[in-house]
Amino acid sequence: MKKVFKVEDLNRMNDVFAKYIFANEERKKLTLGLINSFFDFEGTAEIIDLAFKDREMDPDREEGKGAVLDVLGECSDGTLVNVEIQLEQFEEMGRRSLYYWAKLYQRRLLKGEDYETLFRTVTINILDYALFPDAEWKDYHSCFSVLNTKDLHHALTKDLEIHFVELPKWHYKKGAKMKRLERWLAYLSSKTTMEEREALAMMDEDIRTAMEAEKEFVQDYEYMSAYDRREKYLRDQRAHEKFVRNEGVAEGKAEAKKELIIAWRNKGKPDSEIAELLDMDVDEVRQVK
User: Fold this and answer.
1) What's the domain count of the chain?
2) Within 10 Å of residue 81's Cβ, how many Cβ atoms?
3) Same-domain status, 207 and 261
4) How far is it, in rounded angstroms, from Cα 7 to Cα 218?
5) Cα separation of 244 and 77, whole Å?
6) Are 224 and 232 in contact (CB under 8 A)?
7) Coil, strand, or helix at residue 127?
8) How confident is the model at residue 248 (pLDDT cuts 50, 70, 90)?
9) Number of neighbours of residue 246 by Cβ within 10 angstroms
10) 75 Cβ partners below 8 Å, 6+ apart?
11) Listed residue (142, 140, 139, 148) closest to 188, CA to CA
12) Residue 175: pLDDT band with limits 50, 70, 90
């Protein structure tokens, strides 16, 4: 018996689902809408067309790091835009994003060509976790470029642009007028109810189109099988991380008790008294050397 999937149960941050919605020629208008919602913040001119590119990037050398990107497109003005949706937390997300940006930027320059053939390259990262501590950056959206540290305004080049959106820092505000990016984040966020999404679809044609595409997605057994495998992998990853954390806490407590036992012994406390203080068996205390 085949598993029955429902749109209300979808994890819209699942990369299999994201590619289905945003890396599809038939729904290119949605991709343009998502990308331009980021450009609103920077006061940058909107892009009017996008050609989807091969998302595979070969490593420079056999042992090098390759990349499989979520959505990659070239705009009519030469701008290259990569959109990635990340559920997994990477310790070096900044370096990872810069590395992928650099590979995209340099592959535009063929041997013997002049540097003027290089164009603006934009990486957009939508993260399902907080990347920066609140004390460092509280806002849900950040954008990085190469600026003169003397004034933070003078740009070395406008070719580098790396965006991060941290979904946990974004909050749905009922009744508030949303910007285009906020509407997309509301659509993607697991905290948004189906009723709220339907209300967004009434005011935003692109989100209405995305919700129509969801119905097709859950009916496609091949896509849903890939989606399900990805969800299982993510569940296993979370379970493993939780186990490692719990093991680390348990080991830490055991080590702390051992240090206390040795310290109290050095002060002349008998093992029986130490066992009572630490709620342990005397035999356990005696085993500590």
Assistant:
1) 2
2) 26
3) no
4) 7
5) 48
6) no
7) strand
8) low
9) 10
10) 47, 48, 49, 50, 81
11) 140
12) low
Shared domain check, 159 and 90: yes
Q: Which amino acid is at 287?
A: Q
Same-domain check for residues 190 and 268: no
* 17/255 Cα distance (integer angstroms): 45
Q: How far is CA 82 from CA 32, 181, 210, 216, 272, in A?
A: 12, 16, 19, 25, 65
pLDDT at 129: 92
**Residue 255 above 80 pLDDT?**
no
Helices and strands (H and E) in the chain: how many: 9, 8
- Top pLDDT among 139 and 47 is at 139
Instruction: Tell me the C-alpha distance between 28 and 210, whole Å.
Output: 11
Within 10 Å of residue 86's Cβ, how many Cβ atoms?
A: 21
What angle in degrees, to the nearest 10, is found between the helix axes of 28-42 and 205-219? 140
Instruction: Tell me which residue range forms the domain holding 262.
Output: 251-287
User: Cα separation of 170 and 222, whole Å?
Assistant: 33
164, two tokens: 């991060």
Q: Same structural domain for residues 167 and 214? A: yes
Give me the residue label for tokens 């989807």: 52
Please check whether residue 162 is in contact with residue 195, taking contact to mean a CB–CB distance below 8 angstroms: no
Per the domain annotation, does 227 fall within a domain?
Answer: no
pLDDT mean over 121-125: 95
pLDDT beyond 90 at 181: yes
In three-state secondary structure terms, 10 is coil
Q: Give CA–CA dist 191/172, Å, rounded.
A: 8
Task: At 89, list the tokens.
Answer: 């937390």
Q: Is residue 233 assigned to a domain?
A: no
Domain annotation covers residue 230: no
Q: Is 288 helix (H, G, I), strand (E, B) or coil?
A: coil
Task: List the one residue out of 150, 153, 155, 190 whose CA is nearest residue 170.
Answer: 190
